[in-house]
Amino acid sequence: MLERFGIMAMARPSALPVPADRKVSALSNGQVMERWNAEAAGVRALAAGDNVITMFDAIGEDFWSEGITAKSVARQLRAIGDRPVEVQINSPGGDMFEGIAIYNVLREHSQDVTVKIMGMAASAASIIAMAGDRVEIGAASFLMIHNCWVLSIGNRHDMAQVSEWLAPFDAAMAEVYAARSGRTVEECAAWMDAETYMSGSVAIERGFADALLSADQMTEEPAAREADRELNATRALELTLVSAGMTRSEARARIKDLKGTPGAAHPATPGAGASDGSAWMNGAMDFLATLNAR
After folding, report:
1. Which of 39, 122, 197, 288 has its CA 20 to 30 A from that of 206?
2. 8 located within any domain
3. Which domain holds residue 258?
C-alpha cells in the first residue's frame, strides 16, 4: 500500500488501513481548531537538524493551505535516508485519513522515529504521534484523542451506513492508542468517546508519551501565533458553517464575504485583502461563538 510513497523498508506493526474510496471528509471539528488557536498556535522548536520533520500546520491539504501530507513526509524521509528521524508536532489535526497515511509512512521508516509534541497533537496529529518509537511532550502541551469526526450528507439510511463504515476506523485507532500506551482498548475507546485532552504529565502517566521535553526546546513566535490563529479561525468557521447545513462552497463564499473579498481567488494568506487582519479574525471568532451558542 505504501509503495506509492516510495517507502520500501520492511513494514513495522500496527499499520492502519487507508480507505480506497473517500465518500466523507474525516476532519477535526471546529472546537478543536479554536482550542489550538488559544493554547498552541505559534509554538515552534528553537532549532532543527537535517533529520527533522516539522509538522506545524493542519494535517492534509485543504482549501486554505497545503497542510501536512503523506506525500510531503515521504519526500522528506527519502531525503533523510537510512537515519533516525525526529518529528516535531504542533497541529490541531485535520484529515484523519491523511493522518493515518502519515502514521503508516513513519512506521515504515527503517530507523528510530522520535516524536516531539511542541504544542498540541490533536485528532489526526495524535495518530501521527503514536508512530514514534519515543514520544516526548511539553509540560504545557496537549495530546487530544477522539472518534473519527466526519462531514457527510444524506438521509437516515445514509447516516446509518456512514456510522457502520466509521466503526472499524474508531476500533483501529483505539487499538493503536492501546498498543502505544499499554492501556486496554476499552479504556482508549472511552477516552476517544469523551474527546479527551491530556496534558504532558497525564499523557506520560497514561503511556501515550515517554518523557517531557526540555524547556529550552520550545519557543513561541508571536508572528507565527497570529498567522496560525487566523488560519485556524478560518478553518473552524468553515467547519461550523458546514455543520449548520451549508455546503462547503457556500461556507467558503460566506467566509470570503466576511473577509471583505467576495469572489476572491483561493487566498494565499487568510485575512489578505481585509484592511485589518486581526479585526477579521476577531469578527470570525465572535461569529463562531454565536453559532456555537445556538
Report:
1. 39
2. no
3. 222-293
240 shares a domain with 131 = no
Instruction: Provide the 3-class DSSP secondary structure of residue 272.
Output: coil
Q: Are residues 163 and 98 in the same domain?
A: yes
C-alpha cell at 20: 480506497
Q: Which of 220, 246, 271 is the last residue of a domain?
A: 220
Q: Of 106, 134, 154, whose CA–CA distance to 9 is shortest?
A: 106
Q: Cell numbers of 167, please?
A: 466503526
Tell me how long the chain is: 294
pLDDT tens per residue, range 131-159: 999 999 999 899 999 998 876 777 888 88
pLDDT in tens, 13-71: 444 554 544 444 445 555 665 565 555 555 566 566 789 999 988 898 876 667 899 99
Q: Of 190, 220, 250, which residue is a domain's last?
A: 220
pTM of the model: 0.66
Strands (E), the chain: 25-26, 43-45, 52-55, 85-91, 113-122, 134-137, 142-145, 150-151, 196-199, 211-212, 218-220
